[in-house]
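Fold it.
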Amino acid sequence: SPDQSYYLIAHRKQIFCRITLRVLRRQTALSQAMAGGGFVSSAGGTEFEAKITPIVIMSCIMAATGGLMFGYDVGVSGGVTSMPAFLEKFFPVVARKTQDPTLNNSNYCKYDNQGLQLFTSSLYLAGLTATFFASYTTRTLGRRPTMLIAGLFFIAGVVLNAAAQDLAMLIVGRILLGCGVGFANQAVPLFLSEIAPTRIRGALNILFQLNVTIGILFANLINYGTAKGGWGWRLSLGLAGVPAVLLTVGALLVSETPNSLIERGRLDEGKAVLRKIRGTDKIEPEFLELVEASRIAKEVKHPFRNLLKRKNRPPLVISIALQIFQQCTGINAIMFYAPVLFNTVGFGSDASLYSAVITGAVNVLSTVVSIYSVDRLGRRKLLLEAGVQMLLSQVVIAVVLGIKVTDHSDDLGKGFAALVVIMVCTFVSAFAWSWGPLGWLIPSETFPLETRSAGQSVTVCVNLLFTFVIAQAFLSMLCHFKFGIFLFFSGWVAVMSVFVFFLVPETKNVPIEEMTDKVWAQHWLWKRFVEEDGDVEMEGRVGVNGKGNGSNGVDYSS
């Protein structure tokens, strides 16, 4: 019939495109091998030809300033909440408790105040809400405009925080900063994954996490320098405007990703950008693969509903689990409240801020280690090694605090105080080269294009939800659990290490578009989801009456 003829021609065109793509891939692999310049991935596939161009490096550096802003917001809150002038203006009850030990039932309860925790956690609750809107803008407007929106939110939040006259103004400013976090954390990891060549995708993606750690370090240094003045907290909060402006300007200067342009039907622009960022004219195989992935993506009318399909279960489960586990390491509790924590266990005000600076510096250096090692050692090895290191360091901290810090005595002594700082640094370093960057990298590189924006949205949402929970509960948990808080987190570290060992496959050097075939289909558990779903789809394609599930009886699987 004419109807069947129409669909037969359409499917033959699809077959021709796929065969052309495969032929081009093989020709590229052959020419690279003859020239001695081929890149063979560890998963057995051939990478697309690409140079590490200056435009890629500069684009990634500019985009990753979103991490700088996020890190500064994380680091600055712990510092200002330990400043007497800030506490006296916004939290007078806490200020009295820190100055008069007789008002406390326990040294661990000095800072136990829901309002103080809300100041820190409101940012992440706002980010959680904003990420749903960011998913829409990332998909329909692109990665670049979403980063620009994030920068504008950051600037507005900084102005309100620096000029705050009461607690309400302070919280509204934090909420606007949270909206910026939601948009930035949605767009930046996707931008970095899509613009980077496969063989250095991990290293460039970790630039985001590196900038998070640099932001935390800068915040700690500024807090240390401004702690003495009565206006110091305003300067600390106001200087967040520097990374906010950098992100906004960077979003105006960088190019949109080829994936986003092709996904929105701008094929010529996408091809031109791909040629520019790859530094070569031999982009046809990669371009055709992006077009094919975009075609499949456009067939998905409801990406969030599609995300729940059986074939998408592996990346979805792993992404959600990684975000939950990342927060349950206790890292953000330590980074948010490092000065408060050190003050609680017996460090003086200056010593606590100084110790926070040390941990911030260790955080930055260890993230640099991750950039070097992630595409050499792989994701799994870093996660498993760090699990052992974090577990041991937290147990040692719990033992020392259990022996030396009681409800009414916090005299650690120089030796034990140094040991606590060393163990905190050991813990932070392990996190910084593993769970910190890889918690963002692995989700951004495992979702297929048709669900990538929705998948990243869920990833950010879960991360911010559990960040909010930990930030809102940590000081109360510290008051009730005392030193046992570190045993609580170490138990989670043990659980997540077992999860990685059995359920997280290696994704090193695997092109994003080939994750299903080369990662999930090869895993002992996840292949059941991919294979069974594939069987169901194939049955749907070959209909009994010639009109199968969208394929009208035509079997083009070969």
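DSSP finds 26 helices and no strands in the chain.
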